[in-house]
UniProtKB/TrEMBL annotation:
<keyword id="KW-1003">Cell membrane</keyword>
<dbReference type="InterPro" id="IPR045863">
    <property type="entry name" value="CorA_TM1_TM2"/>
</dbReference>
<dbReference type="InterPro" id="IPR045861">
    <property type="entry name" value="CorA_cytoplasmic_dom"/>
</dbReference>
<keyword id="KW-1133">Transmembrane helix</keyword>
<dbReference type="InterPro" id="IPR002523">
    <property type="entry name" value="MgTranspt_CorA/ZnTranspt_ZntB"/>
</dbReference>
<feature type="transmembrane region" description="Helical">
    <location>
        <begin position="266"/>
        <end position="284"/>
    </location>
</feature>
<dbReference type="Pfam" id="PF01544">
    <property type="entry name" value="CorA"/>
</dbReference>
<protein>
    <submittedName>
        <fullName>Magnesium transporter</fullName>
    </submittedName>
</protein>
<feature type="transmembrane region" description="Helical">
    <location>
        <begin position="296"/>
        <end position="316"/>
    </location>
</feature>
<keyword id="KW-0813">Transport</keyword>
<comment type="similarity">
    <text>Belongs to the CorA metal ion transporter (MIT) (TC 1.A.35) family.</text>
</comment>
<keyword id="KW-0812">Transmembrane</keyword>
<keyword id="KW-0472">Membrane</keyword>
Length: 322
């Protein structure tokens, strides 16, 4: 699957043309975008030969699970970013790698699959068409803006999930197993998100350097806005990681307190039950004792058991042991 666009003097002039025409069209003063979804090695190698892309960058684009980065070569820059999406049901974070070759006249995006909605990027470009005169810098900004907004949405969704987790921890009858599973899922998602978000600061900083000539004066404020969103997402992710750890510690403390309360009540009732046991055990001796074989002996022993048990219960209740 391939998408193409061509801008001339800040105006969208053509789209959907074959990749084989890219090199010929770049001969003019235009800006071209090419999107390759699931390309074969030969397809990417052919385009790389036409655009003069470095072989190491091409190799990185064909391999998955590269860290987010921005490498600068003689003729182009190479970006690796990750779009993210949170599964609301399970709380697990799903990632999609998006690579990009940034040349003076062209932007080439490479995706392993269609999990990343590239239409969101083209809609972002169409929504800010007045900036298209900035060329490749305009295209790269639209791509990064969509990716970083996805990071921010994922952090916000995780924050809402963690608030629900807090409510579960302090509920009257918490499901400890459910809380543990959800807390573990949140922690895994935040670790994944942290690996994706934190390196984006370096990516954006590298692009905005003046010696790269990617960002002009018009686009500089917009890149600064993207950088601010990256910082906010990074700081938010770090705070949520600490919050999940705090929730887990709080859950363990609450469990310990509830166990202590249960043990205290069980011990109190055991002490109360021990009184009738002691009295009946005493009167169960096979030797004569006061009241032996007499009705009043039964009533005395019963009265002693009742009085002592009630007194002990009242004493424990007063001390909040029961």
């Amino acid at each position: 699957m391939t998408d193409t666009r061509l801008y001339r003097n800040g105006v969208l002039e053509a789209e959907g043309f074959p990749v084989e025409e890219v090199a010929d069209r770049l001969a003019d003063d235009v800006t071209v975008w090419v999107d390759l979804c699931g390309p074969s090695r030969s397809e990417l190698a052919g385009l790389a030969h036409e655009l003069g892309l470095h072989e190491l960058a091409v190799e990185d684009a064909m391999q998955e699970h590269e860290r987010p980065k921005c490498h600068i070569y003689d003729t182009h820059a190479f970006l690796t970013t990750y779009a993210v999406r949170l599964d609301q049901a399970s709380g697990r974070l799903k990632t999609c790698e998006v690579d990009a070759f940034v040349t003076p006249k062209a932007l080439v995006t490479v995706r392993a699959d269609d999990h990343f909605d590239i239409r969101a990027v083209t809609d972002r470009w169409d929504g800010s068409a007045h900036l298209a005169g900035s060329g490749v810098g305009f295209l790269v900004h639209g791509l990064l803006d969509v990716v970083v907004d996805g990071h921010f949405d994922a952090v916000q969704a995780l924050d809402e999930h963690i608030e629900e987790l807090e409510d579960l921890v302090f509920s009257e009858q918490p499901s400890n197993r459910d809380v543990q599973k959800r807390a573990l899922a949140m922690r895994r998602s935040l670790v994944t998100l942290r690996r994706v978000v934190l390196p984006m600061r370096e990516v954006v900083n590298t692009l905005v350097r003046r010696d790269q000539a990617v960002v002009d004066a018009t686009m500089a404020p917009y890149y600064q806005d993207v950088y601010d969103h990256v910082l906010r997402a990074s700081e938010w992710t770090e705070s949520l990681r600490d919050l999940v750890a705090t929730i887990r510690d709080t859950q363990l403390n609450i469990q310990g307190n509830r166990l202590n309360l249960v043990m205290k009540k069980v011990t109190g009732w055991a002490a109360i039950i021990a009184i009738p046991t002691a009295v009946t055990g005493f009167y169960g001796q096979n030797v004569p004792y006061p009241g032996y074989d007499q009705p009043w002996g039964f009533w005395v022993s019963t009265t002693v058991m009742v009085v002592l048990s009630v007194g002990l219960y009242a004493s424990f209740k007063r001390r909040d042991w029961l």
